[in-house]
Amino acid sequence: MKTRICSLLLAVSGITALAQIGINTPTPTATLDVNGTLKVRDIPQTTTLPGYQVMALNLGNAQVTRVDSQLLTDAAVTAATTNTSVYAARKTAGVNLLSLGLFPTGFRAVNFLTSERTVGAAGLFTDTDNSYTIPSSGVYATGFTFRYGSGLQAEILSNSPGIGIVRTRAGVGTLIDSRTFSGANLVLLSLTISETSLNSVYTFQAGDKVSFGLTGSNALSAALLGSSVASFYIYKISN
Q: Do residues 33 and 61 lie in contact, with contact meaning Cβ atoms separated by under 8 Å?
């Protein structure tokens, strides 16, 4: 009996001295280092998270750590409320208008660039045709504002120019909304208020391309276009 007690004491003292135990590994790197699978046959179940710590595996070093359950809740809320479709851009100089054969007659797109975005992922927009690509089908809130030159012209502009939003689906461009600049004819004064905006909701399909531009713009001055200001935003609000 004395021999057994001594052997046990020696074994315990050896473990204490080593401070690390390895199972299936001769070189443990933690207090208990298990190189293999693990079975736990009896795990009590809880119906609430507050007051408990969650065990998590670090994929980088295979170490198990404690995670406050509130962190998981916060991460889930963040993921649920992050809207990856949000995109906005603003162009304050160098406005040019792009004409494509698939656009409706009279529509030319503003040459927005990815570098001019104010919020959103660059992958949602392409500089090739200056369009936003719908990431998933649903209803989108969309706004587009354009100021031609100073926003006030001392004449009634011909061709009734204005702004428009075009949706391109399966290679077919459709003008889904438009608004002309406002004009006023007085006895001694002709004026065009050359600033306007569109703000509404539209239904799109995944893969649709959305372009923002001008309608009836052929008679507009290239110099005034260059100093114009344009901006748009778009984001999904419902399936």
A: no
3-state secondary structure of 99: coil
| The one-letter amino acid at 215 | T
Closest C-alpha to 173, from 70, 104, 105:
104
Retrieve residue 100's tokens. Answer: 């494509």
What tens-digit pLDDT sequence spans the chain (239 residues)?
Answer: 555 545 544 554 555 555 788 888 888 888 888 887 777 777 777 776 666 677 787 777 778 888 776 776 667 666 666 799 999 999 999 999 998 888 999 999 999 999 999 999 999 999 999 999 999 999 999 999 999 998 888 878 888 899 999 999 999 999 999 999 998 776 667 888 899 999 999 999 999 999 999 999 887 888 899 899 999 999 999 99
For the chain, what is the total number of helices (H) and then of strands (E)? Answer: 3, 17
CATH number of 87-238: 3.30.390.50, 3.40.640.10, 1.10.260.40, 2.60.120.40?
Answer: 2.60.120.40
Distances (CA, A) of 109 to 17, 146, 155, 210: 75, 12, 24, 10
